[in-house]
Amino acid sequence: MEPTPEQSPHHAYPDHWEADVVLRDGGTARIRPITTDDAERLVSFYEQVSDESKYYRFFAPYPRLSDRDVHRFTHHDYVDRVGLAVTIGGEFIGTVRFDRINDQGRPASAPADEAEVAFLVQDAHQGRGVASALLEHIAAVARERGIRRFAAEVLPANNKMIKVFRDAGYTQQRSFEDGSVHLTLDLEPTEKSLAVQRGREQRAEARSVQRLLAPGSVAVIGTGRTPGGVGRTVLRNLLAAGFTGRTYAVNRAFDEGLATLDGVPAHRSLGEIDERVDLAVIAVPAHRVPEAVADCGEHGVQGLVVLSAGYAERGSAGRELQRELVRQARSYGMRIIGPNAFGIINTAESVRLNASLAPESPARGRIGLFTQSGAIGIALLSGLHRRGAGLSSFISAGNRADVSGNDFLQYSFEDQDTDVALLYLESLGNPRKFTRLARRTAAVKPVVVVKGARHSGTNPPGHAVPVSRIPDATVSALMRQAGVIRVDTVTEMVDAGLLLAGQPLPAGPRVAILGNSESLGLLTYDACLAEGLRPRPPRDLTTAASPQDFRDALAEALADGTCDAVIVTAIPWVGENGEAETGDGEVLAAALRGAAAGGPAKPVAVVHVEIGGLAEALAAASSTAAPRTRPTTLAGRPAAAPGAPAGAASATATAPTGPGTEAPAETAGAAGTTEPAGTAEPEAAVPPARPGRIPAYPAAERAVRAMAEAVKYAQWRRQAATPGKVPEFLDETTDEPGAAALIDTLLGPAPDPRGRPLTHDEARELLGRYGIPVRPTLPAPDPEAAVAAAARLGYPVALKTTAPHLRHRADLGGVRLDLTDEDALRRAYTEVTELLGKPAELLPVVQSMAPRGVDTVVRASIDAAAGAVLSFGLAGAPSELLGDTAHRLVPATDRDAAELIRSIKAAPVLFGWRGSAPVDTPALEELLLRLSRLVDDHPEVVSVALEPVVVAPQGLTVLGATVRLAPPPPRGDLGPRRLPNY
User: Fold this and answer.
1) Residue 409 and residue 877: Cα distance in Å, rounded?
2) Distance CA 38, CA 70 (A)
3) What sign for the dihedral angle of Cα 556, 558, 560, 564?
4) What does the DSSP 8-state code read for residue 312?
5) What letter would DSSP give residue 542?
6) Among 376, 366, 325, 368, which residue's Cα sits nearest to residue 345?
7) Which phi and psi (to 5°) does residue 130 adopt?
8) Cβ 863 vs Cβ 889: under 8 Å
């Protein structure tokens, strides 16, 4: 919306305050500033508020707003007086406003930093989380305008409104004055307020997906009158799956006399249906979609699956159509899967929904699947079906204009029917949020991801999201840090998913191998070594082994305390006539299942070659039991599942036992209900404690790779149970205020958006504030200056060129070391200038020598989408030529720092490789932590490179440092909840 002429030209309409939000029940609403055009909307809204809510708002009967009230509540300067409204369908359902006040409570302007806040929520929408969403957004607006505290007056009887403020997580004070409760909220975000915000976000977004996957009724809009076509296919699939709700066929071209189609009621519009429809599947041409969406919105549909194509995948014009589609749907409170979607599936017995183009609904299982590609979705459904695996849910999001992989993670986290989440992603709209959600979900159940479009540098057609410039290797490392199992192909994703969904997690990397083929056993042994596992010598049962021999050998291996997992290899038996007997698969499967069921809980995988019926018989053991709920310990946290990594259960807390209450308000508000504070999270399903289905693989490499992923994930789970810490010494030896003041000075009052590099001395001063000393260098524009510099620094010294094309290039002759006296320095200076050019081109410097050690490089950089990334590698060829660099997200903990230096392939060089002296890795870890703290405390530090960092057996020396400052990029993950708008 645009400002009217009556509004101050000095304070333009702040359109960046507009936001779409998901409410507690899963519906959406829009938050925006109130303008002078909203007078009629405000009056209509107020008329629908109950007398009790009005009384709580104004502390007296107040049946209607006066003209003066309407003018005051719709005219704002967006600085000292601000009003926000929550709208659905263009109409107000809630409002909030603040007025800046001074110490006496009178209207004021800056620098006064306190404001009086007031809410009002329509009674019909109380309990949906409207007031809590408004509080988050009005608090962010207030902080932007220099307001640090909110004051509110609440009637003592209005306990629900008091609870809204109390549950927000902000630091607050309460007092009783003149018959009302006076509340003061400090608006500085706290760890608790952020936890509350994210807890509410998780519940709301999970609920929004749950509403799509478990509707009570479905209408297929665009159902063809004749067999065939997209709409008719979806209707047929809904019926074939046995959907437990009510189904309707809708097409405006239906004859008026047509009552049913394929046995379901047929209608020309949603208005003809007697009940509210929960989910609409839209299968009409793109130019007719807006009409269908409006019909859905006006008749209370909760969510849409848009199968129609012709949007962002067609170019810029289609991208604008896609944006308008999302705006239109959200204005009615609806979420969208699509457009250009393949559909959704929910196999729960109480739902049995197949609103997709998949001709056959998958069996019920424990795997949740999200894909951004319809073609990949078809392939995955086919592959899982072929291998006997079932699904709990399936979403093929197409252009993922609204519902995304992040929403699916929110849903999967608390879905008791899902043990493993599989995601095929081609773009990451919000990488910061993805890693945060993935880390939390992976703490309770595996998350397996295939990332398409890894090397193109652009997003696939139809994905209108920001492009991240982070290299794919960095993305992979960050996913690993978050506990995500990153694989390269959809085949590997299915292989890993089958093992993780059917088997317990391994306690370690020790693998027993047994089977009736020595050669296949050796192939498996080699594959284990290649994947970093610790295999025991294969046990050859010989080709004469019977199913009972397999059972006995497997039971023995499972009972052996020196192995953590078992891989069984099997080839067909050779009969007396010399021909292979391939039909005993069911007998062998029964033997293996029996041994697995009777032994300790360890993962088992089978590698087989052409044994008929074996894979199918093993798959038949797939469990369709009711979801397993984690028991709760006396400490109030879920107990660990047997066979799961120790301590994994502590990753999540038990869910609240009932809803809380929320109030609306407009000084302190009207009655309503509030949601829980959000510090606790729902229980999540856990991987099976006992073996269920035993996965079978046609090749040893595939089985071993899946087992290796399970081993690495289990290790991450064990470590995640006791997270690392930021050492306290950093607080004592860092000067955060001094660094902030220095950064402000260096950037100046009007900083260049492109930023600026720091000089050597500026970089040294800034890094020194965080306990990172950089060895000084002195310029040497001529031999005399070089000699003077050496005298000042003390011999021995190094002579280095600092021209950009020669920096860190000792191989080109631009670096001379161990110059012990003046003659050696003059001789080196002459040689360098004769070889490479004039001093003015080379920019030579003199630096005192550092103790001998290993040259490393430490970097930190800011990506606008993913956040701050800390990187480490050995200097020179290992990192530059071979790409041997490790990465972690900032802020880094002590564990992150230790893992960072140990995860590069060249790490043995740091730990005494080939008899060399081990270097001071604790000092290196401390340096990483200090740099992490610097960029985390000061987002204006957008890049730092420490190169080289010479790590000696005792201590380290930073010989070079480059730092770049810039205005900090926006941090959407720290602001109020909002849906992305691409």
Assistant:
1) 39
2) 9
3) positive
4) G
5) -
6) 368
7) -70, -45
8) no
